[in-house]
Specification:
Shape of chain B: globular
Number of domains of chain B: 2
Strand order of the largest sheet of chain B: 2-1-3-4-5
Number of strands of chain A: 14
Radius of gyration of chain A: 21 Å
Number of helices of chain B: 10
CATH class of the largest domain in chain B: Alpha Beta
CATH architecture of chain A: Orthogonal Bundle
Radius of gyration of chain B: 19 Å
Order of helices and strands of chain B: EHHEEHEHHEHHHHH
CATH superfamily of chain A: Cytochrome-c3 Hydrogenase, chain B
Order of helices and strands of chain A: EEEHHHHHHEEHHEEEHEEEHHHEEEHH
Strand content of chain B: 5-15%
CATH architecture of the largest domain in chain B: 3-Layer(aba) Sandwich
Helix content of chain B: 25-40%
Oligomer: heterodimer
CATH superfamily of the largest domain in chain B: NADH:ubiquinone oxidoreductase-like, 20kDa subunit
CATH topology of the largest domain in chain B: Rossmann fold
Largest interface: A-B, 62 and 57 residues
Helix content of chain A: 40-55%
Structural class of chain B: alpha/beta
Strand content of chain A: 15-25%
CATH class of chain A: Mainly Alpha
Strand order of the largest sheet of chain A: 8-7-6-11
Shape of chain A: globular
Largest sheet of chain A: 4 strands, mixed
Largest sheet of chain B: 5 strands, parallel
Distance between the termini of chain B: 46 Å
Chain lengths: 432, 246
């Protein structure tokens, strides 16, 4: 008797933005499996044309609520590259600190609110508030920590205000920084609870491996989210950010007509697991210890382990932030006057968003008005890799029942922490 | 008391205003005493056609979205526009300064004419369907969101500020941004944000839209006092309220 399986998910839930899953199989043979994006394109690269360099970060921050600090910083770095602006060590450290707040906020939200319900057999975090109040309250506290953190440095929890080309509109007081240090220190027990909870559920993560290329920033001195060159697990060559187009190679797939990215293979992955696979030896002790507890090692190629790598990175950003705050306080904070004279030029900026490497490129005329922009977002870069995972994983699970197949594929998408609103390069395709 | 059934739907936006709901942190648990979320794609796998209140995030930018919002409007007793993209069109309206063909070609190059890339000039939600309440801002204020939802759950009329950001800015004892030779939209923009941007050293870019009757003459006087014109003001207005009449 022939058995047909049809999985069709419109608008996968518990992800940022809109994505669809399609799978068709008969007699145990997968005939078609696809990851589609029906998100409304928003055309940011077109919209920023004619706008002043002073307004760019305010606009592009709105590409994504949950990566707003990352988008702001990538834009600012691109503008500074284009106009030859150098920033102070203090500005550099405060920006990294602000960006770490976003990593904490985003990772805790993703692992705690979006992934945990799958591991605990629920449809959302709401029933967990009753069944696992201790877990939910821990996640809330860590999430709030990330928000307080961004608010102290960036002026607001979503869409930062203070970040601008050349430096800051205003910097936090030393008192505020000391407060931040205290809330981070006080959150360490909560981090340990999160680690224990995820550890206790780690066996619920599907056991699926597919070797792929991982791409992330790399810096000689530390585990980086902000500085460095582009590195890959497939090559020793490192590419300067200014040449990012050489890495992303956006193309239109004949199979789907969606713009995908590839470098050495037909797909690559970005995100926490990519950063871990490239830079794990640079992690600080608490993160090293966390990775050890999970048995997470360089070379891991189970995409579901991205969620574990996110937990490792929560420990990393907390520990590195405490160091940065100490360095800033030892030196003493100084208000710096920032006055940028616009000039013509072109430049690129790159920052690691919580969900992977993000590139911005801008061109300005002599009045500082934007003439051209190109933005290449992490989820766009993961798109082909999600598709390739689907193709490899679907045949392995095709004998399971419909709901389980659906759940496993949805969990696979969620593991990438996709952020589809960053929709600049997404096309909207419907196959089946 | 039966709980108010609430569904949240998102259109073209950054989903930052949904994120602001998560940012209520513990207060979400209090709100859950008053409301029952029945659909919220970013947070829940549940779906429902039975809701009292529909909260709409994002702008309408495609024909298919227009059909979707109309269907939601038919089912909802109360429809709330959440955040600038929904209330005014927000940054999405920057697109309307260009020809749509040009916008498509700029981003998608030779693929620009593919049917699924069809886009039309951005509309705020109330340009397509009737909106009962607006929660302004980019992002929305979490306090205001919580207050409006509580009011509706308790059958009260929410009080939405109809005075300019300058009032809150003064209460925060900030130096006026015009003193820094900047153009600030505070004098004509609806308050309720606690003047967050001026308080962080940035001009107001008007994300909450105008007060009901902006005092244009006073704004003109302020501009003249600092040697600037209404056109300078209009230039800044483009960012969040593209081509709003003034």
């Amino acid at each position: 008797m022939s058995k047909t399986v049809n999985v069709s998910v419109n608008h996968v839930t518990r992800v940022e933005g809109h994505g669809n899953i399609r799978l068709r199989a008969s007699d145990g043979k997968v005939e078609h499996v696809a990851w589609q994006i029906p998100e409304a394109p928003r055309f940011f690269e077109a919209m920023v044309r004619g706008r002043s360099f002073e307004d760019i970060q305010t606009i592009v921050s709105r590409i994504c609520g949950i990566c707003s600090v990352t988008h702001s910083l990538a834009a600012i770095k691109g503008i500074e590259d284009a106009m030859g602006i150098e920033v102070s060590v203090q500005t550099d450290k405060l920006r990294i600190l602000c960006h770490y707040g976003e990593q904490m906020e985003s990772h805790s939200l993703h692992v705690g609110y979006l992934v945990a319900p799958d591991l605990l057999g629920q449809k959302s975090v709401i029933p967990l508030a009753e069944s696992h109040p201790h877990v939910v309250k821990t996640v809330i506290r860590l999430h709030r920590l990330g928000n307080i953190w961004m608010e102290i440095i960036g002026g607001r929890m979503t869409h930062p205000i203070t970040l601008k080309p050349g430096g800051f509109t205003t910097i936090p007081s030393e008192k505020k920084l000391r407060e931040l240090k205290k809330v981070i220190e006080d959150a360490v027990p909560d981090l340990k609870i999160l680690i224990e909870v995820v550890l206790s559920l780690a066996d619920k993560l599907p056991n699926f491996e597919r070797d792929t290329e991982y791409i992330a920033l790399k810096h000689p001195d530390y585990y980086t989210f902000y500085h460095g060159d582009i590195a890959s697990t497939d090559t020793d060559e490192q590419v300067p950010v200014q040449e990012f187009e050489r890495v992303v190679n956006e193309y239109v797939s004949p199979q789907s007509t969606a713009k995908w990215c590839k470098w050495h293979r037909d797909s690559y992955a970005v995100g926490s697991l990519a950063r871990f696979n490239l830079n794990a030896e640079q992690l600080l002790p608490m993160a090293v210890d966390t990775a050890k507890q999970f048995g997470l090692k360089k070379g891991a190629c189970n995409p579901y382990l991205n969620n574990v790598a996110q937990v490792v990175e929560c420990a990393q950003v907390a520990e590195h932030s405490l160091q940065l705050i100490d360095e800033l306080l030892t030196k003493g904070l100084k208000a710096e006057k920032v006055k940028v004279e616009p000039k013509a030029g072109e430049g690129a900026g790159c920052v690691e968003a919580p969900r992977g490497i993000l590139f911005h490129r801008y061109q300005f005329d002599k009045n500082g008005l934007c003439t051209k922009a190109n933005i290449c977002i992490p989820t766009g870069q993961n798109h082909a890799n999600i598709q390739k995972d689907f193709e490899a994983f679907a045949p392995q699970i095709i004998d399971r029942d419909h709901d389980e197949i659906r759940l496993l594929l949805e969990m696979l998408v969620r593991s990438y922490d996709p952020c589809i609103s960053c929709s600049t390069h997404f096309l909207n395709v419907e196959f089946v | 008391m039966s709980k108010l059934k609430v569904a949240l739907f998102d259109f073209a936006c950054c989903e930052g205003c949904q994120l602001q709901i998560y940012n209520l942190e513990e207060e979400i648990l209090d709100l859950l005493e008053l409301i029952q979320p029945v659909e919220w794609r970013e947070a829940m796998s549940d779906q429902s056609d039975d809701y009292d209140v529909a909260i709409i995030e994002g702008s309408i930018t495609r024909k298919e979205d227009e059909q979707r919002i109309k269907a939601i409007r038919e089912k909802a007793k109360i429809l709330i526009a959440l955040g600038s993209c929904a209330t005014t069109g927000g940054v999405n309206k920057l697109k309307n300064n260009f020809e749509m063909q040009d916008v498509r070609e700029c981003v998608y190059g030779k693929d620009a004419n593919m049917k699924h890339l069809d886009t039309y000039p951005t509309k705020a939600v109330n340009e397509v369907v009737k909106v009962n309440y607006m929660i302004h801002g980019c992002p929305t204020s979490i306090k205001e969101f919580s207050n409006i939802v509580r009011c509706l759950a308790l059958g009260k009329e929410p009080n939405i500020p109809n005075y300019p950001v300058c009032v809150e800015c003064k209460m925060n004892e900030n130096v006026c941004r015009f003193e820094y030779d900047e153009i600030c939209l505070g004098p004509i923009t609806r308050a309720g944000c606690d003047a967050k941007c001026p308080s962080s050293g940035m001009w107001c870019f008007g994300c909450r839209g105008f007060v009901d009757k902006p005092n244009v003459n006073a704004a003109k006087d302020v501009m003249a006092e600092y040697g600037k014109t209404l056109d300078d003001l209009r230039g800044k207005m483009l960012l969040f309220g593209s081509k709003q009449e003034f």
